[in-house]
Design brief:
644 residues; alpha/beta; Rossmann fold; Immunoglobulin-like; 5 domains; nine-stranded mixed β-sheet; six-stranded mixed β-sheet; elongated
């Protein structure tokens, strides 16, 4: 039980006034002497009992009447009131989750539709004097204003193809609400609980934090998670499904070039490889499409394959070493694919622009400065790829103190030397792209590959492609927009026989082709929410539109807002290149329990009806009940006084 006007509760002691008055003015019975009282004794006893009962009942009624009158003015109700004062205006910050997971369909409607309708109804039913701040998953789409404008803003909000860190939003919400001192402050979050929470959100605040969860039963959502291009004009799509099968269609410049059913057979991830046309003198626009009505935000995948051009590989290491000579010869010998290698000594890397290369092969890791590690981190996070070999002059101290922390590389736990023997290598991931079409289905191992020494790495979160002696030997991980491959040994004859062995082609050449083709160093493939930047001003135009000066904005950077193909043109309208933009595939865990632990109030949207008040306290007033009680008590008092 809570009260709107708690100051009146101080008058509750006045409820004992009837008892005090009764005790003060109670008359003692007068003694009258009769000659004979035999006949009056029984009558007197009955009157005395009735009078005492009448007095007790009247005392109770009058005490209750005064108490009810005081409570009536105090405004009792049930519900949340610790953050609300009815005399103040409401300031509400609303977060409407518009990320891709909110497009999941359940009960013939998607979660985002349910969430936006709940937000619309809540704002429309609120008081007209309130102030609203509305944020969505799109960091550029936000609102401040009154009720009518807030309703219009919410009605125009749509699914956004990316997600923002939830902690960033909370910082903004704190800043907004803490700017008001004399107001009711509320943070209202409408989400399915699948949030990118990268920091602690449990800090207490001086306002009500309420969330409405739009969780649903598991749906049979199917999506195209990613795509990789290999050096031999083959594109591999990674499809994800929980329950059912689908079909995959692929279009090249609008013409269908591939169509086939996809059966998952209980496997959650299915990889489909499709050959693509040769890119002779122009870029090719590829669009893959799957059939799925459970969530349509990731049913398309857009990709741009540039016209044929050599992929430049930076080979870092001593030019006189056997490793560098062998890798350079291997790249030069393969004429069927477009790879070219440039060799620089490791000591000269600080003077190079890594962005000029599609992949970097560190054949050794000698002294690595913090500056070089930071440059490599920036290169990979923006779409480049790195192949690191733990051989030659591998400096484990610089690796552990500079390189590993910057690139989140696996921890080195020691060194293994089998003492005048060797470890046999084995393939741990036969389905990996670098071994596709290399070995047949019955191939079980590559026992002829000998590893003479290797470093032990702890591959937490890494995909182990090969092992040696039971230890991870070749592993990879996606970092930012690029990839990193790490080999636990070297290519020198003192470290392994890889160079003399036939495994060198798939292991070295295919890995470099995979890394160079997979990276986005050319800036062709982006995701919603990324920024497209250039040194000079340009226009970003949808592929189906024509550029017109004055109509299209010119800028040195654009925030990508939706999926599809877009042309980059100079101020004169000349098309510089075409880029593809895809929705982000959310991979965040369900944070519903964390919200329940850290928010003041967590509601299930299915339990909310049209009368539920989300912005003001959802309270049940008892004023009418108390008024009715006061009238009944007054009537009872009158009746008892007159009849008894």
């Amino acid at each position: 039980m809570n009260f709107e006007n708690t100051q009146y509760l101080s008058f509750l002691p006045a409820a004992v006034l009837p008892l005090v008055i009764y005790l003060i003015f109670k008359k003692k019975p007068r003694r009258i002497i009769f000659s004979s009282v035999f006949l009056l004794k029984k009558i007197s006893e009955r009157v005395r009992i009735r009078t005492r009962l009448k007095d007790i009942i009247l005392l109770i009624i009058r005490t209750l009447s005064i108490s009810a009158l005081i409570l009536f003015f105090s405004g009792p109700f049930t519900g949340e009131n610790s953050y609300f004062d009815p005399s103040k205006r409401n300031v509400t910050v609303i977060y409407l989750d518009s990320s891709p997971s909110m497009a999941d369909v359940s009960n013939d409607s998607d979660k985002f539709t349910n969430a936006s309708q709940t937000a619309l109804r809540t704002v429309a039913d609120s008081e007209n004097t309130g102030i609203f701040y509305i944020f969505t998953s799109d960091p550029e789409r936000k609102f401040k204003g009154g009720r009518a404008e807030a309703v219009k803003f919410l009605s125009e909000t749509r699914i956004y193809g990316s997600e923002r860190p939830f902690g960033d939003f909370l910082v903004q919400a704190d800043s907004v609400l803490n700017g008001y001192s004399d107001a009711n402050k509320l943070l209202l979050v409408l989400t399915d609980g699948k949030l990118n929470i990268n920091e602690d959100i449990s800090a207490s605040s001086e306002y009500l934090r309420r969330t409405v969860l739009f969780s649903s039963e598991n749906t049979d959502d199917i999506s195209i998670d990613s795509a990789c291009i290999s050096g031999n004009n083959e594109i591999t799509f990674s499809l994800i499904s929980a329950f059912r099968n689908t079909s995959l269609d692929m279009f090249s410049d609008g013409q269908k070039i591939y169509s086939a059913p996809v059966e998952f057979n209980g496997v959650p991830v299915k990889k489909i490889s499709v050959g693509v046309p040769e890119t002779a003198d122009r870029s090719i626009l590829l669009n893959a499409l799957i059939k799925d009505n459970a969530n349509t935000t990731n049913n398309n995948y857009y990709l741009v394959i540039s016209k044929s051009a050599e992929k430049k590989i930076l080979i870092a290491g001593d030019s006189a070493s056997a490793a560098v000579k062998s890798i350079s010869a291997l790249i030069s010998a393969e004429k069927n694919t477009a790879l070219s290698g440039e060799n620089y000594d490791t000591d000269d890397l600080s003077s190079l622009r890594f962005e000029d290369y599609d992949a970097v092969f560190l054949t050794e890791v000698p002294a690595v400065s913090s500056y070089l590690s930071s440059a490599l981190k920036r290169y990979v996070s923006e779409g480049g790829s790195i192949f690191i070999s733990a051989g030659g002059r591998f400096n484990i101290n610089d690796y552990s103190s500079n390189l590993a922390p910057q690139l989140t590389l696996p921890q080195a736990e020691g060194y293994e030397n089998p003492q005048s023997s060797f470890f046999n290598a084995e393939i741990a991931d036969h389905e990996h792209q670098i071994f596709r079409n290399v070995f047949d289905e019955n191939f079980k191992g590559i026992g002829s590959v000998e590893i003479y020494n290797l470093y032990k790495f702890k591959p937490a979160g890494w995909n182990v492609i090969m092992k040696a002696g039971g230890y991870p030997f070749l592993m990879e991980k996606k970092y930012g927009e690029g990839r990193i491959a790490l080999m636990a040994s070297g290519l020198e004859k003192t470290s392994s026989n890889i160079i003399e062995n036939g495994i060198a082609v798939p292991l070295i050449f295919n890995t470099l082709s995979y890394l160079a083709g997979n990276g986005t160093a050319e800036g062709n493939v982006y995701t919603v929410g990324q920024k497209l930047k250039m040194e000079t001003k340009f226009a970003l135009v949808e592929n189906s539109e024509q550029y017109y000066p004055g109509k299209h904005e010119l800028s040195s950077e654009f925030l990508l807002q939706k999926e599809g193909f877009f042309k980059i043109t100079d101020p004169e309208g000349t098309v510089l290149k075409t880029v593809a933009v895809n929705n982000e595939r959310e991979k965040y865990g369900d944070s519903s329990e964390l919200l329940r632990e850290t928010f003041n109030d967590v509601l299930d949207w299915k339990a909310i009806d049209e009368n539920t008040k989300l912005i003001s306290p959802d309270k049940k007033l008892f004023s009418r009940h108390l008024l009715f009680l006061i009238l009944i008590l007054a009537a009872a008092d009158i009746i008892i006084v007159r009849k008894m």
